[in-house]
């Protein structure tokens, strides 16, 4: 059980893991796996359970009326994954803002880089270390 929403852990493939992200695409899994393994974390990725479907509403039929046609089948759920690391104390927010993660070229991982909004991580000087 997590202390709060930002620090979740659970068992993935029989291994107690700190949850990095849930319901992520295969491309995102690959990005996170490469980045976290470079930073010496052991990554575990498992398929997310499919979402629960709501039951179809009951339809009342008038006397002599035939049963309604069956509803169309639901489209298949997209394949998503839950990503965790074996260090169950890992917290991605603390790792990013604590400047604990680094890219392959030695730069600190920024929030924009983590969210894949930027392809290159630009080292930002924290506001409390700026001289101007």
Write a structural description.
The protein contains 3 helices and 4 strands; from the N terminus they run ββαββαα. By secondary structure, the chain is an alpha+beta fold. It has one domain. It has a 4-stranded antiparallel beta sheet, with helices on one face. β1 and β2 form a beta hairpin. The longest helix has 13 residues.
Task: Tag the structure with descriptive keywords.
4-stranded antiparallel sheet; 3 helices; alpha+beta; elongated; 132 residues
Question: What's this model, at a glance?
Answer:
This protein is α+β, with helices and mostly antiparallel strands. Helices cover about 15% and strands about 20% of the residues.
Oligomer: single chain
Overall pLDDT: 83
How is the largest sheet built, in terms of strand order?
A: 1-2-4-3
Structural class of the secondary elements? alpha+beta
Topology of this structure?
Elements (H helix, E strand, L loop, with lengths): L8 E4 L2 E10 L1 H13 L4 E5 L33 E5 L6 H6 L13 H4 L18
Antiparallel strand pairs: 1-2, 2-4, 3-4
């Amino acid at each position: 059980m997590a202390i709060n929403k930002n620090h979740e852990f659970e068992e993935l493939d029989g291994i107690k893991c700190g949850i990095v992200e849930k319901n992520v695409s295969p491309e995102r899994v690959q990005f996170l796996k490469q980045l976290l393994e470079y930073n010496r974390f052991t990554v575990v990725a498992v398929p997310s359970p499919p979402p629960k479907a709501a039951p179809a509403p009951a339809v009342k039929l008038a006397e002599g009326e035939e049963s309604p046609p069956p509803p169309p089948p639901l489209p298949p759920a997209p394949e998503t994954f839950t990503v965790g690391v074996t260090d169950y104390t890992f917290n991605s927010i603390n790792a990013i803002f604590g400047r604990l993660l680094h890219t392959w070229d030695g730069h600190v991982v920024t929030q924009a880089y983590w969210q894949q909004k930027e392809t290159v991580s630009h080292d930002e000087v924290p506001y409390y270390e700026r001289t101007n």
